[in-house]
Amino acid sequence: MRDLSNNVVEQFNVSGICYLQFRELSRLGVKHAYVLKCKGFEYNYRGRLAQKEEIEKAYEPVCKMLGFDFNNLILPIQKHTNNIKIVDKVYERFLLEGVDGTITNTQGLVLATTNADCILYMLYDKRKKVIANVHSGWRGSYRRIIEVAIDEMVDKFGCNTADIIVCVCPSIRKCCFEVDKDVRDMFYDQFSFLDNINDFIMNGYKEGKYFIDTVGINKCLLLNKGIDSKNIYDSNICSLCNSDMIHSYRGESKEYGLCTALIGL
To answer: How much is the pTM?
Structure first.
């Protein structure tokens, strides 16, 4: 298996579980992982209410490896919304339907999200000891879910944006995220207030096709919210370019699998 390590993330393989960790979160002692394609570990719930046995089979070995209690897992049923839920206990999964991000300052809880091209963010306030795990596909990016997450951390936990670290997991990048004119127009209208919007929406190779840099747009939103550019740690890994190691909806089509990100205090 290739090594995707770079100056932001480091790759590990422990007992058949291949995963990435952000060097900065590791330096700060935050337990976390972005789990790559691993035979025998499937996270393919795709917005449905999975059985506990399915989740246990997939997540318990990973939780054990990271030093988490599997019974404290928070796994939303993602629906590409901009809904963020603050959690302070373990919830029945049906109560997390339509939730695409969670925030907590409760010790022991494990926040998880899944993706296959969508952006996953792991956030950490090093002073307030608050974490968040956010799923942002192109619809979530259009709905500006990352801004909602930042606002919730500030409003509900008294976080200072200068203290918030944002880690950007592998996702589809501008080199591969090709869309039709309808999606291009949606993004152009939504983010026309950005002075550099034309840097993020580019003509494709064919007429009527366009490339959108959703990661770049979200970075602008983070900066506008007061996040320090030095506190944005981007893995700079494209899921489609590396679909041999990372699940990609565009690379795998209807049979796509899901990767997962976990973070806990």
So the answer is: 0.95
